[in-house]
């Protein structure tokens, strides 16, 4: 499925998706990884910032947050929050920079299909995020004395859905970003909004009802709800009360609303990507 149908009139006409060849996807992904390694700013965003946030979990160890060890509570929030750093912010910068230096336009002149050109970059970001999520889980289970996730499949489903959402939002925001340097600014509303309103660091239980309902509609909040429900085996989709224990089927049923919100964000992200993503720089 091509996510970018309906490009702006002054952009190059979107050709058919064409074949998706794994070898080509891996070549673009390898190119992305090589360029990332050479870009210190991008490297800090993708690797340095997650390491910094992971290190900040250690001082929170032993604190009580909603009846849960503070480091484990915040660490489960970081499992979702790292999507913004590694997928959203990184891809926004990548697509903006490659559009402005005409790399995207040149790649479209090769035998690569549109999906291969863009999908290789998404594959790199998703792969880096997967590695960091696994390492963070290992940190929670070992050094921070957390438990093994109660439902790993539900946790994986929530993180995968979040990766799709934030990749789509990166397509859209890159189209609104005039230069690669400004990409560090255009991503800030999403970064700060999700960090403050998704319950990553502190629970939302004491928030006023209107504020709580607004926060639950943020793209990161349902990911955090699903992750914590899957990790603790308790219902973290309810607020202001104790989180009851859930069985396997009950956990999936409790997460129907968060998944529905993510589905809505997928539709919104696809629509915005189709409208705003650009293959070429704007012409004055």
TrEMBL record:
Domain ABC-2 type transporter transmembrane: residue ranges: 79-268
Entry's transmembrane regions: 41-59, 79-97, 117-141, 153-173, 185-204, 259-277
Q: How does it sit in the membrane?
A: Multi-pass membrane protein
Q: Where in the cell is it found?
A: Membrane
Enumerate the UniProt keywords alphabetically.
Membrane, Transmembrane, Transmembrane helix
Q: Would I find Membrane among this entry's keywords?
A: yes
Name the domain of life this protein comes from: Bacteria
Name the UniProt record assigns to this protein: ABC transporter permease
Whose protein is this, by species? Actinomadura rugatobispora
């Amino acid at each position: 499925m091509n996510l970018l149908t309906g490009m702006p009139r002054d952009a190059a006409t979107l050709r058919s998706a064409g074949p998706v060849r794994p070898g080509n996807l891996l070549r673009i992904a390898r190119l992305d990884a090589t360029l990332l390694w050479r870009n210190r700013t991008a490297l800090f965003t993708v690797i340095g910032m997650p390491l910094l946030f992971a290190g900040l979990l250690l001082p929170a160890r032993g604190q009580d947050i909603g009846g849960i060890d503070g480091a484990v509570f915040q660490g489960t929030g970081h499992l979702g929050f790292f999507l913004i750093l590694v997928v959203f912010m990184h891809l926004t910068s990548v697509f903006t920079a490659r559009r402005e230096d005409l790399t995207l336009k040149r790649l479209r002149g090769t035998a690569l299909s549109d999906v291969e050109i863009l999908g290789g970059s998404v594959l790199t970001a998703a792969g880096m995020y997967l590695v960091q999520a696994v390492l963070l889980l290992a940190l929670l289970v070992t050094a921070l004395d957390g438990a093994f996730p109660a439902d790993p499949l539900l946790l994986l489903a929530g993180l995968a859905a979040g990766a799709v959402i934030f990749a789509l939002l990166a397509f859209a925001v890159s189209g609104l970003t005039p230069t690669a340097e400004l990409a560090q600014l255009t991503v800030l509303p999403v970064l700060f909004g999700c960090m403050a309103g998704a319950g990553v660091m502190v629970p939302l239980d004491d928030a006023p009802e209107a504020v709580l309902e607004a926060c639950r509609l943020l793209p990161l909040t349902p990911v955090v709800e699903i992750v914590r429900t899957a990790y603790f085996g308790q219902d973290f989709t309810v607020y202001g009360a104790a989180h009851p224990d859930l069985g396997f089927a009950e956990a999936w049923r409790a997460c129907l609303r968060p998944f529905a919100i993510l589905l809505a964000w997928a539709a919104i992200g696809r629509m915005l990507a189709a409208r705003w993503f650009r293959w070429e720089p704007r012409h004055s």
